[in-house]
Amino acid sequence: MKPLVVTLGDPAGIGPEIVAKAWRRRENEKLMPFFAVGSVASLKAASDIPVKVIHHPDEALRYFDQALPLFEIPSLAEVRLGQPDQAGAQVTFSALEVGVKMALHESASALVTAPVSKEHLYKVGFTFPGQTEFVADRCGIAPDQTVMMLAGPDLRTVPLTIHIPYKDVPSALTLDLIISRARVTAEGLRYNFGIQSPRLVIAGLNPHAGENGAIGREEIEIIRPAVKQLQSEGIDIQGPFAADTLFNPRARAGYDAALCPTHDQALIPIKTINFDNGVNTTLGLPIIRTSPDHGTAFALAGKDKADEGAMVAALLMAAESVHHRQAYKKIHAL
C-alpha cells in the first residue's frame, strides 16, 4: 500500500511541529507510513527528529521507521517561527500542488494537509477561499459537488454555507444546495467511513427551527422540501431540528452526521466536543483528503506547546478512509 502524503503547511506555523510530533507517535498509534512535503528548514527549526530527504514517494516505506521522509520544497528564505512571510507562503503553495498531484496520481494513498495562512497565500497567487476549494479544483471537481465535513470521535457535522456573512446565508441556502450537500455527505459516509446506511439530520436556520413560520420561513419553504426530496431518493434524513438541542449526547446517538445551515452551527459543537482531535475531511473527491481542524497558531510556533492530537487524528482518519474505500470498491465490483 502506498504511504500517505502530508503537507507541512505554513513553515512559520505549528504545522512542521505537529507533523514531527505525530511521527514520534507512529508506533504507539500504529500510524500508516507517511512522508512530508515542505522545507527541511521548517522541520529543523521546529523539531530535532531525524529527517530523510526522499526523491520518490516509494522511498518513504524504506525510511519511515528511522526518520521522517521528506519530499523537499526548498525555501528561498530563512524560516522564522511565528513570523510568516511570502517566501514561506510560496513553499506552502508549492507543497499543496505537489501533495495533491501525488495523491491524484496514486503515488500516495491519501492527502493530509497541515494548517496554512490564507492571508499570506493570497499574496503569492492563491485565489481560493481555502484548501478545500483548492484541492477540489485541482481534482477537477466543482466546489458545489464537494462537502467539508468536520469529524471527531463523538460527532460529524457539515456546514451547508461556509465563509460568507450571516446576512447572505438565507439567500445562499437553496433547495439545490441542501440536496447536493446531503447526497455527497451520504455517499461520503458510505465510501470513506464504511457506514452502509448513513443517518443524516439537518438543523434549522432560525431559532427553534422557525417555530412553524413564527420566526422565519426558511424551514418551511426551503429545508423541509429538500428533506422530502432526499427521502424520496432513499436517503435517511430527518429535520429540520432546533440547532440548540441537536448536539447533546442523546441526540447525537440518533445520527451519523448533522447538516447545518451556517458555518458556526457546525463548527462550534465539533470544536467544543472534539477540540483536540477534530478533523476536517473533504467528501466528494477522487482522492482522500483530511486536515487537523485548527489553524496555524503562529503565537505557539517554536515554543514546543502545539498539541499534535488533531494531526494524529487526521492521519488515522486518512488511513481508515483508505481501507473503507478499498472495501467499498470490492463490494461494488462484485
Automatic annotation (TrEMBL):
The lineage of its organism: Bacteria, Pseudomonadati, Pseudomonadota, Alphaproteobacteria, Sphingomonadales. This is 4-hydroxythreonine-4-phosphate dehydrogenase. It is an enzyme of class 1 (oxidoreductase). Substrate binds at residues 132, 271, 280, 289. The keyword Oxidoreductase applies. It comes from the Bacteria. Its cofactor is Zn(2+); Mg(2+); Co(2+). Pathway: Cofactor biosynthesis; pyridoxine 5'-phosphate biosynthesis; pyridoxine 5'-phosphate from D-erythrose 4-phosphate: step 4/5. Pfam families: PdxA. Keywords: Cobalt, Cytoplasm, Magnesium, Metal-binding, NAD, NADP, Oxidoreductase, Pyridoxine biosynthesis, Zinc. It is found in: Cytoplasm. It comes from Zymomonas mobilis subsp. pomaceae (strain ATCC 29192 / DSM 22645 / JCM 10191 / CCUG 17912 / NBRC 13757 / NCIMB 11200 / NRRL B-4491 / Barker I). Its EC number is 1.1.1.262. Its main location: cytoplasm. GO terms for cellular component: cytoplasm. It catalyses: 4-(phosphooxy)-L-threonine + NAD(+) = 3-amino-2-oxopropyl phosphate + CO2 + NADH. The active site is located at the dimer interface. Binds 1 divalent metal cation per subunit. Can use ions such as Zn(2+), Mg(2+) or Co(2+). Homodimer. GO terms for molecular function: 4-hydroxythreonine-4-phosphate dehydrogenase activity; cobalt ion binding; magnesium ion binding; NAD binding; zinc ion binding. GO terms for biological process: pyridoxal phosphate biosynthetic process; pyridoxine biosynthetic process. The gene is pdxA. Belongs to the PdxA family. A divalent metal cation binds at residues 163, 208, 263.
